[in-house]
Specification:
- With 172 residues, this protein is α/β, with parallel strands linked by helices.
- Helix content is 28%, strand content 34%.
- The strands form three sheets. It has a five-stranded parallel sheet, with helices on both faces. A two-stranded antiparallel sheet has the order 1-2. A two-stranded antiparallel ribbon has the order 5-6.
- Helix 3 packs across helix 4.
- The model has no long low-confidence stretch (mean pLDDT 96).
């Protein structure tokens, strides 16, 4: 993980003053880093029977797709309103700087699925909690939650359900 950490770029005052944004685009452009992330993420779930990986717009699509490929699972996007073409369900949630809404296709998850919810960074946890609630409403067999980076000082993990396994590759 030290190699991955060395590739993360800190962007000061983004998206607003006082925030130090952990930019993973510098990680994703590095072939070795992509390989390491794919391998390390997949090892967390290799023997858990995962059938779907749900990635949260937009950077969660990158790690989520890599994880789905490595596990031989399907990939399901969670998007902002109006971006998915078929029937959706939605959830609104409080973010660090306002209210937002996400959607998922109504038929994306079945009761037979074992799901990993993936996003790039765990900050305050609002986005992931909303995504978890959407997926949970579809009654899959099991849900796991995963991040590449966790910003522990922001306490986002505390917002997530206690009975769900939450993993992060890197904690700050």
């Amino acid at each position: 993980m030290e190699y991955i950490k060395s590739k993360i770029r800190d962007v000061v005052d983004f998206p607003q003053k006082g925030v130090v944004f952990k930019d993973l685009t510098t990680v994703f452009k590095d072939p070795r880093a992509i390989h390491i992330i794919g391998w390390d993420l997949s090892q967390l779930y290799r023997d858990k029977g995962v059938t779907k990986v749900v990635g949260i717009e937009s950077r969660g699509f990158i790690g989520g797709s890599i994880l789905a490929f490595e596990l031989g699972a399907g990939f399901v996007p969670v998007r902002k309103p109006g971006k998915l073409p078929a029937d959706t369900i939605s959830a609104s949630y409080q973010k660090e700087y306002g209210v937002d809404t996400i959607e998922i296709h109504r038929d994306a998850i079945t009761e037979d699925d074992i799901v990993v919810l993936h996003d790039d960074v765990l900050a305050t946890g609002g986005t992931m909690l909303a995504a978890y609630n959407l997926v949970k409403s579809m009654n899959p067999k099991k849900i796991y939650i995963n991040f590449i980076i966790e910003l522990s000082a922001l306490g986002g993990r505390n917002l997530l359900p206690d009975d769900v396994e939450v993993t992060s590759l890197i904690k700050y």
